[in-house]
């Protein structure tokens, strides 16, 4: 269980890099002012982690939002944790190195804090991982990891990898709690991170979550995000509305009981809103 006390609280990745427990995801946020303003709003309200990806096509807006927010809030680049991901079309050794440069250019940054292999696919992810290892060894990126990797993908990767991934970012929410994968990653010291922690809004009417929220005077979203933290899961909810960005992060003033955590755990149905990594082959 994490003891995160505030929005800037961090977990130590296995290479010593500090990663915030809580961040802003920008999946499906339209490039341009929506992205710029959501990033600025998050940073202004205390967020220090921003998660994007090449395929989101909003890295330029993320970079602009970061640049403006740093200036307006008197922060340094080193105080932020920025993540992006190599897309499936760019997998392979040389193409991944090129994709990293493109992401940096769009973001207007000199380095990333975390770079992820976005999906395992069929057969290129080992080559892609080798490129991430090169970037890491050269000091071009602070930490490297994977996204959407099942246990068997990780096992295959680790047969040849020189560096164990620091993070595995996966779809994870009360309807898909990924307990077996979480246990495996914990044993390997790979930090689990949840994308779509609110199941794209599909859990907001759940009666169990509603009841627990009412008891604490909290929204269902806040209950789920608190559940993430108490399980030691890094979480990156998405929103473009400032009031929701603030509300999502207002989860450090209450605690779920062991019984409440167990009730939420029991909601698991192994149900996804995104693709199963075993069926998204390329």
Automatic annotation (TrEMBL):
NADP-dependent oxidoreductase domain segment(s): 33-269
Protein name (record): Glyoxal reductase
Cited CDD domains: AKR_AKR5G1-3
Sequence similarity: Belongs to the aldo/keto reductase family.
Positions that bind substrate: 118
Active site per the UniProt annotation: 56
Keywords, comma-separated and alphabetical: NADP, Oxidoreductase
SUPFAM superfamilies named among the record's database cross-references: NAD(P)-linked oxidoreductase
Source organism (scientific name): Paenibacillus radicis
Gene this chain is encoded by: yvgN
InterPro entries linked to this entry: AKR, AKR5G, Aldo/ket_reductase_CS, NAD(P)_OxRdtase_dom_sf, NADP_OxRdtase_dom
Site (Lowers pKa of active site Tyr): 85
Gene3D superfamilies the UniProt entry points to: NADP-dependent oxidoreductase domain
A molecular-function term among this protein's GO annotations: oxidoreductase activity, acting on the CH-OH group of donors, NAD or NADP as acceptor
């Amino acid at each position: 269980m994490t003891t995160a006390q505030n929005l800037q609280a961090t977990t130590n990745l296995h290479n010593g890099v500090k990663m915030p427990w809580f961040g802003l995801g920008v999946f499906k946020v339209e490039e341009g002012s929506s992205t710029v303003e959501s990033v600025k709003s998050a940073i202004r309200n205390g967020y220090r982690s921003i998660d994007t990806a090449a395929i989101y096509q909003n890295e330029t807006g993320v970079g602009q939002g970061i640049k403006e927010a740093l200036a307006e809030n008197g922060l340094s680049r080193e105080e932020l944790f920025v993540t992006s991901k190599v897309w499936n079309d760019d997998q392979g050794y040389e193409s991944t190195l090129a994709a990293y440069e493109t992401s940096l250019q769009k973001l207007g940054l000199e380095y990333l804090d975390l770079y992820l292999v976005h999906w395992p696919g069929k057969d290129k992810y080992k080559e892609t991982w080798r490129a991430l290892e090169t970037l890491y060894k050269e000091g071009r990126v602070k930490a490297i990891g994977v996204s959407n990797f099942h246990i068997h993908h990780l096992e295959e990767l680790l047969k040849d990898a020189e560096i164990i991934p620091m993070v595995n970012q996966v779809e994870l929410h009360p309807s898909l709690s990924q307990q077996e994968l979480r246990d495996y990653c914990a044993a390997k010291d790979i930090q689990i991170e949840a994308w779509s922690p609110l199941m794209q809004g599909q859990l907001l009417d759940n009666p169990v979550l509603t009841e627990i929220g009412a008891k604490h005077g909290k929204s269902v979203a806040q209950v789920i995000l608190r559940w993430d933290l108490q399980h030691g899961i890094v979480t990156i909810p998405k929103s473009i509305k400032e009031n929701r960005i603030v509300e999502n992060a207002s989860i450090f003033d209450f605690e779920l009981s062991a019984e409440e955590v167990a009730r939420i755990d029991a909601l698991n149905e192994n149900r996804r809103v995104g693709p199963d990594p075993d069926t998204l082959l390329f």
